[in-house]
Design goal:
150 residues, 4 helices, flat, two-stranded antiparallel ribbon, single chain, alpha+beta
Length: 150
């Protein structure tokens, strides 16, 4: 992607789809190359390891090991949530085959997202308006909303 500043507004001027990728979620942005910076505490640690005569590769291995502990602690909460959801059944607001299947398959956190979407779609009404040969016309409205304009 190429951007240009036109009249103090950034504008995309070219997109090369082969070079594009999915955007990183906020929880993953620290993994992007552009976010890799040595912060002051890590810089001081590198300097002290160097001053102690520790080879760069050994210092790198040590810091990688320390960073792995942090990553593992981030993952641990997710693992615990997965385990806990596998040990108990989800509470269903209404017992339907679709919700039962989703509660068996998804973690508790993912099921909650699914359930919100499911409830949202229950608010829609479908009304057949007309039939013209093989063409059916329906009106879809959301419960409690004012009819929209054509």
């Amino acid at each position: 992607m190429a951007v240009s500043n036109v009249k103090n507004e950034w504008v995309v001027i070219e997109v090369v789809h082969e070079h594009n990728h999915e955007l990183a979620t906020p929880s993953k942005t620290y993994l992007l190359r552009s976010q890799r910076r040595v912060k002051e505490p890590q810089g001081a640690e590198i300097s002290s390891l160097d001053a102690a005569g520790i080879a760069s590769i050994d210092g790198y291995k040590y810091m990688t090991h320390q960073a792995g502990k942090l990553e593992n602690s981030r993952r641990q909460a997710e693992i615990e949530a997965d385990f806990n959801s596998s040990q108990m059944s989800q509470r269903l607001f209404v017992s339907t085959p679709m919700l039962k299947q989703a509660s068996d398959m998804y973690t508790h956190a993912v099921f909650e997202i699914f359930e919100v979407e499911y409830k949202e779609h229950l608010m829609y009404n479908i009304k057949e308006c007309s039939v013209d040969g093989t063409t059916y016309t329906y009106e879809v409205t959301r419960e409690g909303s004012v009819r929209g304009r054509n």
